[in-house]
Amino acid sequence: EEAEENTKELNFYSVSSDGRVTLWTMSKSELTYQNVMELKLVGSSKDGPDDDASLGSLAGGCSFDFNKKSHHLFVVGTEEGNIHKCSTAYNSQYLETYKGHHMSVYTVQWNHQHPKVFLSASADWTVKLWEHTNPKHVMSFDLNNAVGDAAWAPFSSTVFAAVTSDGKVHVFDLHENKHEPMCEQKIVKKAKLTKIVFNKRHPIILVGDDRGCITSLKLSPNLRKTKFPLGTKAPASNDKIAEEEQEKLNKIMEVALKGEV
Questions:
Q1: How far apart are CA 124 and CA 113, in angstroms?
Q2: For a surface tag, which of 42, 46, 63, 99 has the fewest beta carbons within 10 Å of its beta carbon?
Q3: pLDDT tens digits for 215-229?
Q4: pLDDT tens for residues 22-81?
Q5: Using CA atoms, how far apart are residues 61 and 77, in angstroms rounded to an integer?
Q6: Phi and psi, residue 134, nearest 5°
Q7: CA nearest neighbour of 208 among 190, 194, 218
């Protein structure tokens, strides 16, 4: 769910496997809805005239996230593996379709400091990094198991964490290592990890699993390197630090696009 700000009425967005992105509005005592986007299937050149796309079928939505700077812009992950860039201003077509995953995309999330970069996590065992003006992924990480969720750290543009079905948490810092996670730890024995979230002010992550348990973990000092003290305002509120964080990630992506990663 994503809440819409700057309005007197309470409202939020949802995405569903029925192929719709919907805006819900609470007015007085009634909850009303409006379809913002129908996730039409994207056919390939091999498809014939009787394919699903031509019959008006919809792609199942799995995940979505609104851009932190351009509030009308959002990306949607689907069951077939495609990611679509959409706008609340244009509900008839996609602005871009990103093809890289071949199974369900459980998570898409924009970077907290870099407004052009987002992350995706999929059942195909991979986490991919995208720059939204490029239809091809910039970097890809194989975690050797289905990835239930991934999240950017709020304190650094290059740190993210992911959880997998084999019970492991993987923490990356691309500034330190562009290939392997800085930490890979199995925290549950017989459950699949499905959710992960960073605390916005403290070096703590919460991890959820398919048995209903939530585990709280503290990041070690090497996993929380930042230019500002944790517990203070986020880098996005400091223009200079935000620019430095963006440039740090830009350099990593430039190297990756040159084929050196």
A1: 27
A2: 46
A3: 999 998 877 766 555
A4: 999 988 788 999 999 999 988 754 444 444 444 468 888 999 999 999 889 999 999 999
A5: 6
A6: -115, 120
A7: 194
> In 3D, which of 59, 88, 60, 56 has the Cα closest to residue 72?
88
Place of tokens 């192929």: 19
Structure tokens at 203: 């070096």
**What own/partner pairs with CB < 8 Å and gap ≥ 24 does 68-76 have?**
68/110, 68/111, 68/112, 68/115, 68/236, 69/115, 70/115, 71/5, 74/2, 74/13, 74/21, 75/108, 75/110, 75/118, 75/132, 76/15, 76/21, 76/37, 76/39, 76/108
Q: Of 82, 90, 19, which Cα lies nearest the Cα of 56? A: 19
Amino acid (one-letter) located at 117: V
Residue closest to 39 by CA, chosen among 56, 54, 55: 56
Q: Which amino acid is at 85?
A: K
pTM: 0.84
CA-to-CA separations, 95 to 22, 91, 119, 134, 204, in angstroms, rounded:
18, 10, 18, 12, 36
